[in-house]
Amino acid sequence: MPDDVVEKHQVAGLDDRARGFTRLVDIARSEGAYRALLRYEATIVVTNGAETKPAALQELIHRLQGRGYTQLRSQLSFNGNTYLGSQEPWIEYPDHERQPELRSGLLGWVGRWLRGVRR
Length: 119
Description:
Blueprint: E1 5-14, E2 20-30, E3 33-40, E4 43-46, H1 53-66, E5 70-79, E6 82-83, E7 91-92, H2 105-118
Antiparallel strand pairs: 1-2, 1-5, 2-3, 3-4, 5-6, 5-7
């Protein structure tokens, strides 16, 4: 990813192990498209080229949600070299609705029976 970073956003939420995190995401222009880059522990997520900066950020959020990240929100922190601090509002992204795990065998039967008993 080139050094042509045009924006930086704070992204916060819960990771795939339900631990809170906050990281800077770089939005860079490369070959006529925008890409978002997040580094978190051993994970690096880079989006494909998008036509707009918001589309690149949205793709990153979608990828994180696909990996099990929840309660995600973002805030513009840098516009070019200008530090914005906390002047910009947080944007919240609704979590994807998760389908319940279907188990087979005895454990699945017991789980379904227990759910039926609680109703």
